[in-house]
Design goal:
The protein has about 110 residues and is mostly helical. It is built from 5 helices and 2 strands, in the order ααααββα.
Length: about 110
């Protein structure tokens, strides 16, 4: 089952996992050490992130390491860029309005 990437990153624990493995590949046990939850709960989050192709698994010996899938993150960033431009325009308009109001008061 392919999950929606935005539902996956809506969860704060999954966002925290993404932040952790952005720095280095980690095993489920090492990821679980950073959370006040069970290893099974972390594994469930990892499965969802893997299904969304935000992380990938690498088998090294008997261990499974999870790594951030940078290309998938770039796709999300590219999609968000359109909204970033809208926000920037609106903030610039607000700055202009506030400057105008401030100039009128002086």
């Amino acid at each position: 089952m392919r999950r929606d990437v935005f539902q996956a990153i809506a969860d704060p624990t999954r966002r925290a996992i993404i932040a952790l493995i952005a720095l280095q590949s980690m095993t489920p046990n090492s990821i679980a050490e950073h959370f006040d939850t069970t290893r099974q709960a972390v594994s469930k989050h990892l499965r969802i992130l893997t299904e969304c192709e935000l992380v990938k698994q690498e088998h090294k010996g008997r261990e499974i390491y999870y790594t951030l899938e940078l290309e998938r993150m770039k796709e999300i960033d590219k999609w968000l860029e359109q909204f970033r431009e809208i926000w920037e325009t609106r903030f610039n308009q607000l700055d202009t309005l506030l400057q105008t109001i401030q100039n009128q008061q002086t």
